[in-house]
Each structure stands twice: as C-alpha cells, then as structure tokens.
Design brief:
The complex is a heterodimer. Chain A is of the alpha+beta class. Chain A has 12 helices and 10 strands. The chains are: A alpha+beta, B alpha+beta. Chains A and B meet through helix 5, strand 1, strand 2, helix 7 and strand 4 of A and helix 2, helix 8, helix 11, helix 13 and helix 14 of B.
Chain lengths: 363, 796
C-alpha cells in the first residue's frame, strides 16, 4: 500500500515541480507512460487473485486518475502562463490614431428631392422625368403660352441657335433649356392616360444671375389628372405636403389668386413662419412666405394633350426645391449650392445612410 | 405698378384703411410687393410755432428762437435766413433721425456757439420732401401746432407697389385696380365723369391708316396755344409718389393718363409735322431717332407712324425725336390709337425699347378707350395750360369686341369645390364689367373691352373663385389612388440613388454643378455640336451643354486645393448631353479625386487609378452588376491618360464606364493641377436587369465541400494585359474555378526583360463530390494550357 502512497506523493511533487510543458510531459511519461510507474502497478492487477484485484483495483484506478488530473491541471496552468507571457510581448499602443477615412456627404438638394418623393409617393404619386433641352412647344405653346405673349418673356429663357431642319428645308425652331419642369406634365399626359399622379423633379434654367437667382436651379412639378379632383383637393394635398416636409403638426397656409398660363384658376401658396436669427420655423408666426405656385390644369393644356377637359380635370403645382431646402435646413445663400465646395458640402450635406422615408422620418 | 391710396380713392369709395385695402388686393390676386408710407419716415416731425427769433449773441448768421412745440417751449438755434417770429415751421426733437441729412440729432441738447439748442427746425429737403430755396419750411399759419409733418406737407399718402400679372393689363391703370377691389368687396366703384369738350377750331391734321391689321384705330386732336409749363401740383405729387419725375404739362398728362386709365397717348409738336400722319408698316432702309435719343432701324414688320418726312414713331412703342414736344411747344397733335399686342411685343423685342406704352400695348389696351382717353387729356391739358381744341379725328374702327363665352355655373363647384349662389356670381361678373345673358344653367358672358383673358368657362370660374376668396376653398386630402401602386421611381432614378449612397459611403462628397460649361473646354472631352451651344449664355464661359461632368469636378478640385484642402473626392450624378433631342440626354455618375497623400505612421495610403477602379466596381456591385461581368479595355475617349486609363465594357461594343487618371494635357488646358483619378459611369448604358415574375428567391445551394486552393506563377509579356491572362485562365473551367486572385506582380532580377511574373491563387469549388487529386491536376493542366496559349509560361 505504501507503494501507492509513495508513488502518489512523488508523482504529485514532480508534477507541481515541472517548470514547463516539456518537463511536465517527462513526468507524465515517467508515471503514466506505457513503462511508467503507475502503469507498472496497473499491470500487476492482471496477476492478482479476484479478491486481491477487488481490493486493489479501485485504489490503483483512483491513483491513476489523481495523477492524470494533476498532469492536466498543471498543463492548463503552464499553458495559461505561457499565453500570458506571449501576450505580454504582443502589446500595441492603441492610443495611436487609426488610419483616417474621408467622410462623404450627399448634397442637400438631392436629399430634399428624395424627401419630396417619399411624401408624394405615400400619396400615390410616382416620379416622372423629362429632358432639360426642350422644344418651344413643350416648354411654352402646349402649356398655353401663346406665341409672342409677354408671359414668355418673364421666363428669361436660354435659347440654342436654330438648327437646319431635318427635312432639309429651312430651320427648326430654336430649342430652349426648359424654364420650368412643367413640360414634363405635357410629356406625361401625351404618353399616358388618366388617372395620372406624378411629380417631376429636375433641373431648370433661366438667364438670371444675382444674389437670389442662379442660371440653373431645381423644381418639382406635380400633376394630378382624375375625374372629380378640384381645387379643395389641391389645397389639402399641398397642406399635407407642407406639414410632412417641414415635419410640423400644423401649418398655417393660405392660397391667393395668381396667374400662370397653364392653370385656371391659378394660385400661389404662402405659409406662416417665424425667423429667429438664422433659424426659420415654418408653420406659424407673423410673416407669410410664398413657397409655390399651383392651380387647376388649364382646359387648353388638357386639350393640347388630347384629354377632354369636360371628362377629366386636375391640378398642377410647381415649387423651387433649392429654396425649400434653404427654408428647412437654413442655408443662408443659394450660390454655394453649385460651387462644389467641400467645406459647404460637409457642413450642409447628409450622411449616406439617412434615407428619407415615411416610416423612418424624413430627416 | 405703383399707385397711392388717395389716387385709388378717386375710383373707390371705401371704408377700409391701408391694411384693409392690402388684404383685399391679396384676396383678389393683386400681389403686393412693397408698401411705403412716407409718413412713417416723418413720424418724429411735427408742426411748431416760432414765437421769437433773436440774433445769436456770438454769430451773425444764426438766430436763437423760442418755439412752441408738442414737447413744450424749446430754445432752438437756427441758421436759416428765413427764420422769423410768428412762423409756422417743422420741429425735429432731440434724437430724431433726419432722413435728408442721414444723421440723427444728439439726444442731449448741444451748445451752438455757447447757446443751448433743444431741437431743430427743418427744411423740406432735410425731410426728403422737396427742394427748398429759402431755408426752413415755411408753412401756412393755419396749420395747428402738433400736426404731423407728413400731413402738413401732404405726404401722408401711402404708396403701394404690386405685381401686375401678364393677363391683367387693366391693372396697369388705377381705375382698373379699383374696379377689381370693388368686385372683391372693398367698396363702391366710382365712375369718373369726363366732359365731352366743345371744339373751337378745325382739325387740319390729316390721319390715315394703311395697316389696319396692326393699327385698327387712330384718333387725334389738335390743341393750339397751349402753355407747356409745369403740370399742376397735385399731378406732380402723384407722379413723384410713384417714382416719375415731372417734366412738363404735356408729358406729365400723357404719363398720368397712362397710369390712371392704362391708356397710352402721344403728343406731337404740331409745328414739326409735315403732311398727313400715316399708321403703316415700316419700309426697308428707314430709321427712327426715338425719344430716348437712339436711332433704330425700321423693318417691314414694324408698325410705324410716319409723316412726309418718314417715320416719326414706332406704333405703341416710342415716339420720335423730330416731332417731340418741348417747353416752347404751343400747338400739339395728341394721338390716341390701338396697336396690336403681338406686333408691339415683336417690335419691342427687336429694338430692345422698354417703355410704358409698349408694356401696356403688348399686354392689351382697352379697345374702347381711344376717345375717352383723349377727352380726359383735353380736360387736364386745357385746365392747366389753356389752348383751343379741334374736333376729334378718328381713322379706322376699334378692334372687334371679344366673343361671348358660355359659362356653365356648375363648373364653379366642379373645379373649385366652392358652392356659390347664382345671384352672387351674377353680381361679381357684373361688377367686373361683364355683360350677362342668362340661359339658366349657363350664362352667355361678354367680356368687357379691357379684358383679353376670358376665353372659356374656366376663366370665369377663376373670377368667381378669387372674388369669393381662396380662404373659402374646402381643403381636403387627396383620396387614395385608384388601382394598385407600382414603383414610385424609375430604374435610372433608383440607380442614381444607389450610386450616390455608395459613393458617399466610400468618402465622396456630392456636387451639383452647372449643366453648361465653356465650349473650348468641352472640346477637350468630346463633340461640341453647335446644336448644344447656347445663343444667349449667362456668361461666355457657360455656353456649351456639357458632354462630361469631369471638367466641372476638376475645377472644383482645383478651387478646393487653392483653399488648402489636401485630398478631396467629389462626385456628381447628373445629366450630360450628346445632342439636343429628347433622347440624347444621359445620366452620368462621375467621380473625381485628388490623392491626399496624407502621411500616416502605418504608411501613406494613396488614391490612384486602381482605387478609382475599386470605387467604380463598388458602385456597379451595388447596382447588382459584379465586376466579373465586365471587360477592361483601352480608354475610348482621349481625355483619359493613355497608359493609366481604361474602358469598362460589356461585350465589344458597349462601353459602360471609363476610369483612371485624367490626361495631363487636359489638366493643363483646364489649368488644373494633377494627378486626378476618377471614373465616368453612364447609367443609361447599363442594361435593364431582367424583370422577374415572382419576388421569391431561388433556393440557396448549400455546398459543404471545402474549396481547393493552388498557386500558379506565370511569366507574361508586358504587352499582354493581366486581365486577359485571368480571363483565359477562367475559361479553362467556368464551373469549377470560383476565384482567381493575383497576389504578386514581380519584374526585375531573374525575370526576362519586357516581362513580369504574375502569381495567381486559383480557387476551385467542388460542386458535388470532393475532388480527387487526379481531377485537380487535370483542371490545373487545363488552366496552364489556356495561359500558355496566350504566350504566358508557367514559372517552375
């Protein structure tokens, strides 16, 4: 019996004394290897009588287990220590700056286009487009600007030189840069049938350049052609839009008569606002601000597009997007919009993951 | 159009104050732009009585006055020679701002040569209210102390400026404004009686119309023995209030009637006329020296007024210098005619002349106003300047009355949602001057002679709606759309959104730049057809529709560098123009970056043509087009660096994008420092993705076999693109080869001249059973064979 006790105490002492994994493995072989001491004792079991084996068996197995456990425990401790030692050599200075990444940003006008599309999309509008270079018919005549009418002159139109006609005789009428997004109304009505609900965002051009005008700017056109749509719907739809766009619960808005050749009756819409330093709050206040033009689509325009004004009717509106963006986000000046100045874009721009949506909020 | 409140009251009996009138204008569609009440500027000034005026003890030219003012008795030192005891003057208290001098008085009394002065007495010039010659204002002694100065000077008449929309030329006269405001409920419209003058002399001036299509009626009257002095004070005051400088009786009367009645007139010096006055078309070679002193070429499509000497005026636009009235004029011939709007507009555009007459005639002048206009002019001229008048001569007839319009009463509710009683509609239209034939459900309505904008029922709906006021419109949300909902945006719009967000997430700043650029710079980037050249550019360097966005971005990058930005990455998703047809516009996503070369302790990262390629491929991948679907070829356009630029193609003919470094020669021509790297992606060139019927995805094919990876290194001639080698290798077994990754490029020692070593890791992805060594060897042999066919040789 003293064999067991002696071997155990010697083995456990050797295990705990092993300084590294190699030394520990030597101890393991000495004790538990095929020719090891513990294994030697175990081999004697085969030669014992049944009674003897019953008595010594469990004791020897327990010895083997304890030595083996001690080896594993020591191994884990040594491995842990080895890892600690290794980690201590792997230390880096994480207070050093990481490689900088440039931050990108989206232009506020383009973001506002998406906000507008989200709002009107929720009201059942889809987004239409048309070319920037238009012919006189789409930009003026079809929209009920009679040839030579002074209303045309108010548009400060950019013209192209007249080009030789395709049929070889004379010249085609000069093309123009569209002065408003309204020609998209014409293209949409010519291409499809009512019911129609579209908005048409895009670039428009007028030959005017000063503190509050740029020769290129952005508009969104709206067009609804359905039976039974009247000016009360126009008013309601636009108030719904203004509330959603400026993200306010209520907006004090008014419509007042105006003149546009392509609508009859025509109106402009004003909203109340408060200015406090650089901050503008839309919805209530002492002052009115004009934000858009609108009206019922003129019967002549419907006829020009092959739609019977006695069967279908509807409304149209147009608004300056650059200005809407200024009102909402407080850019003080229109001109930097088109200068691609990185400092301006970083300051007034939007992060790419800010996708305007009705569910997630516009901004 | 400017007018004053008191002028309006000539035609409108109203109980409304200024704010009430403004409110009513807004309701009726007269958009007020500015209101200026001169009384506001003079609020500080009041009438005072000078009790004593003694010489200053210490200055010859000064007087020390005691003045009875609203603030009590004040001692005021005054330098005006006319200051005297008993005078009624205008008093400015301490601290008052003196508009004509543009300074404010001190708030504390000031000593002038030792004598305290407790305020100031003002001249009308110091109040911006006139030109004094004799010193301070010397008012009627009946005016009570304390009366506001504005009232005492007759300056308490607010001036209203509003926008006249092109459809309402009748608003270019105060009478027309009053009529509309009356219809909207502001008060009673007052018709002003004009006496029909009795003639005393014969009209020996003949008039003739040779072009009735442009001048259907021409009326005139001769007045002899007029004294052309200054016009009456009340008229001068009104003209000045609306910004006109009074000139002389004859000029002022014609200007006044133009503003009062929107009726342009023209006065000729009768002595300077030779032979009959003829309204005709111009003749080639004729010229006119107009009243503005400039000489204009007359063309055969202009309406001219001529006498035997040739043109003496451009009909409806401007009169001529040779027959103009002067201060010495005593005999005049006064013209009141009607000129065709289109013709007037065309002549106005061709000559560039801007005049009140042109402004009115091109919008339309009341066709019935020729004779009443003359009557009013005769009344005003003879009242102030005397003279004997002739009978009125008339050539031609007024243009025909506008046709009747059928007005369906139900259209008001149908188009506006407003419920308006028939009798209210009738009243509104009558107030506005329409004549009505009642036919039950419709009115047959004859527009008045001053309206040219009434063609159909909807036009009358507007008249009803605006006089009711748009506040009454029953606002209601749009009903849900009929039918189902499709995509809100088009494919291109969705691509633009995806591309923009991808680039912004990769560090690019979004730009929006002009659609036009300098033509000479545009030629560096492609065709610049004349059909895309603006005839009237806003600036000479913005005259060509852009064939590319690169130039604008390059200039922006240079501006950024000049401001000290180090490395900047810009992009724009916007239009480029290949022609002037509606289908010639493309949407390009264009990115351009200047490497920042910012030093970093882990090594300097740089932006180069490969980085641009990675950004381009990231955009394409986001658009659902992974890079494996494209081939890289030489750049199509010459603005890319020939050795560091490339095209990205789908098949041999379809160039989707180009990328790389901008050509140094282009940069030099743009005066932009390089190098700059970027890409141009034509979103329209990307084929539509195939529309799939169902939204469900195919089942994920789970492959549990581990991929096999092997390295191969080839010796490749420099003339052969590495992309060709990879394409050839992939061709060996498109099923099994899932990836080819270049992990080393080496040239130099041990490598033949003009060659490089290209090391590639090949990944084979077994689809079914695990690959056997034999299968692997067989594929690798095929790959090597494909590479060798291209001239590459396997390195041992």
């Amino acid at each position: 019996m003293s064999d067991i006790t002696k071997i155990e105490s010697e083995a456990l002492a050797a295990i705990s004394g092993a300084a590294d994994l190699t030394a520990l493995d030597e101890v393991r072989v000495t004790e538990l290897g095929k020719k090891g001491r513990v294994s030697g004792l175990m081999k004697q079991l085969g030669k014992m009588s049944n009674d003897e084996r019953k008595e010594k068996g469990p004791k020897l197995n327990a010895l083997k287990q304890r030595v083996s456990d001690a080896v594993e425990a020591r191994k884990a401790a040594l491995e842990d220590a080895a890892l600690e030692a290794q980690l201590s050599t792997e230390r880096v200075d994480l207070s050093l700056p990481a490689r900088p990444e440039q931050t990108g940003a989206l232009h506020p006008v383009m973001q506002v286009f998406e906000e507008i599309a989200a709002i009107f999309g929720d009201m059942g509008f889809s987004v239409a487009e048309g070319p920037d270079i238009e012919d006189d018919w789409h930009n003026f005549t079809a929209l009920n600007f009679p040839e030579g009418h002074p209303a045309r002159e108010t548009h400060d139109t950019f013209f192209f030189s007249p080009q030789p006609s395709k049929d070889g005789e004379g010249q085609d009428a000069a093309k123009v840069l569209r002065t408003h997004t309204s020609p998209v109304q014409i293209r949409t009505m010519m291409a499809g049938e009512p019911p129609i609900r579209i908005i048409a965002p895009g670039r428009v051009y007028r030959n005017d350049w000063d503190a509050t005008h740029t020769p290129m700017f952005h508009q969104v056109e709206g067009l609804v052609i359905e039976s039974g749509i009247h000016m009360g719907h126009l008013k309601g739809c636009l108030i719904d839009f203004v509330k959603a766009f400026f993200e306010v619960d209520a907006v004090e808005a008014r419509m007042r008569p105006h003149f546009f050749p392509f609508t009859e009756p025509s109106a402009e819409m004003d909203v109340k606002y408060t200015r406090d330093g650089d901050t503008i709050k839309i919805g209530d206040g002492e002052q009115w601000m004009e934000i858009l033009g609108c009206g019922m689509v003129h019967p002549n325009v419907l006829r020009n597009c092959g739609i019977d004004p006695d069967v279908y009717q509807g409304f149209a509106f147009g608004m300056g997007v650059d200005r809407l963006a200024m009102l909402k986000y407080g850019m003080p000046d229109l001109r930097p919009y088109f200068e691609a100045d990185p400092a301006w874009t970083r300051h007034y721009g939007f992060k790419p993951w800010l996708t305007p949506s009705v569910s997630g909020g516009l901004s | 159009m400017k007018f004053t409140l008191s002028w309006l009251e000539d035609y409108l009996a109203t109980k409304l104050d200024l704010d009430g009138v403004l409110e009513m204008m807004l309701k009726a569609g007269l958009e007020v732009e500015e209101v200026h009440n001169p009384a506001d500027d003079l609020a500080a000034f009041t009438v005072a009585k000078v009790k004593t005026a003694e010489p200053h003890p210490d200055a010859d030219k000064l007087r020390v006055c005691t003045v009875d003012t609203v603030d009590g008795e004040k001692q005021i030192v005054c330098g005006a020679p006319n200051a005297r005891a008993g005078m009624t003057a205008i008093y400015a208290p301490l601290g008052a701002y003196i508009p004509g001098l543009d300074f404010a008085l001190d708030k504390k009394p000031r000593k002038i040569r030792g004598v305290e002065s407790q305020g100031m007495m003002c001249s009308t010039k110091e109040l911006n209210a006139g030109e004094d010659h004799d010193g301070i204002a010397d008012l009627d002694s009946k005016i009570a102390m304390g009366t506001p100065a504005a009232k005492a000077l007759g300056l308490d008449d607010p001036v209203i400026d509003f926008e006249v929309t092109p459809n309402r030329p009748d608003w270019l006269g105060v009478e027309g404004i009053a009529r509309d405001l009356s219809a909207a409920g502001a008060g009673r419209f007052l018709t002003r009686e004009i006496k029909t003058p009795a003639s005393k002399i014969e009209c020996d001036q003949d008039i003739r119309i040779e072009a009735p299509e442009v001048c259907p009626i021409f009326a005139g009257v001769l007045i002899r023995g007029v004294k052309n002095g200054p016009s009456p004070d009340w008229m001068q005051k009104r003209l000045k209030a609306v910004g006109l400088t009074p000139k002389s009786l004859l000029v002022d009367v014609t200007n006044y009637i133009s503003l009062d009645r929107a009726r342009p007139l023209h006065a000729y010096d009768a002595e300077k006329l030779t032979g009959p006055i003829v309204a005709r078309l111009g003749r080639e070679g004729e010229t006119l020296e107009a009243l503005d002193g400039k000489t204009y070429d007359v063309t055969p499509d202009m309406c001219v007024i001529a006498d035997d000497s040739g043109p003496i005026g451009l009909g409806g636009v401007m009169g001529g210098q040779s027959t103009a009235v002067s201060d010495e004029t005593t005999d005049i011939f006064l013209e009141s005619a009607w000129f065709d709007p289109l013709r007037t507009a065309r002549t106005g555009r061709a000559t560039g002349i801007i005049s009140d007459a042109r402004y009115r005639f091109e919008r339309g002048v009341d066709t019935a106003s020729c004779i009443p206009g003359l009557h009013l002019a005769i009344e005003l001229i003879t009242a102030a300047g005397g003279g004997k008048i002739s009978d009125i001569k008339v050539a031609g007839t007024p243009p025909p009355q506008q046709e009747k319009v059928a007005f369906k009463l139900a259209d008001v509710a149908r188009l506006t949602g407003l419920e308006v009683k028939a009798k209210d509609m009738r009243k509104t239209l009558t107030d506005l001057g329409f004549e009505i034939e009642d036919a039950g459900e419709a009115y047959y309505v004859t527009p008045p002679t001053w309206r040219f904008d009434i063609e159909q029922s909807a036009d009358l709906v507007e008249e009803i709606a605006r006089t009711q006021g748009y506040d009454a419109l029953p606002g209601q949300s749009l009903p849900p759309p009929e039918g189902g909902r499709g995509a809100v945006t088009t494919t291109i719009q969705q691509r633009v959104r995806t591309a923009r967000r991808t680039l912004a997430a990769r560090g690019f700043l979004e730009a929006v730049t002009w659609s036009f650029m300098a033509k000479e710079e545009a030629t560096l980037f492609g065709d610049t057809p004349d059909s895309l050249t603006l005839a009237n550019p806003v600036a000479s360097d913005l005259n060509q529709m852009r064939p590319t966005i690169l130039a604008n971005l390059a200039h922006a990058l240079q501006r950024a560098k000049d401001r000290g930005e180090r490395g900047t990455a810009l992009f724009e998703a916007g239009p480029i123009y290949l022609g002037d047809g509606p289908k010639d516009q493309r949407t390009a996503v264009t990115a351009l970056a200047r490497p920042s070369n910012t030093r970093h302790w882990q090594g300097t990262a740089t932006y180069d043509a490969y980085a641009a390629k990675a950004d381009l491929l990231a955009v394409l991948d986001a658009l659902g087009r992974p890079g494996s679907g494209f081939q890289v070829a030489a750049p199509r356009d010459a603005h890319w660096h020939p050795g560091q630029g490339a095209s990205l193609k789908m098949g041999p003919k379809l160039t989707v994008a180009q990328f790389g470094a901008l050509h140094p020669r282009v940069l030099k021509a743009l005066d932009v420092e390089g190098p700059l790297y970027g890409f141009e992606l034509n979103l329209n060139a990307l084929p539509q993705m195939k529309a799939r019927g169902a939204k469900t995805r195919s089942k994920l094919d789970v492959i549990d076999r581990s991929p096999v990876r092997r390295d191969l290194a080839f010796l490749l001639a420099d003339t052969v693109p590495a992309g060709d080698l990879l394409a050839a290798m992939r061709g060996a077994d498109k099923q099994l080869i899932s990836d080819l990754s270049v992990f080393d490029i080496y040239a130099g020692a041990g490598i033949e001249d003009g060659h490089r070593s290209v090391a590639v890791e090949v990944t084979l992805q077994p689809q079914g059973e695990t690959l056997t060594d034999k299968q692997i060897d067989s594929v690798m042999a095929k790959i090597v064979a494909k590479a060798e066919k291209l001239g590459a040789s396997l390195r041992g």
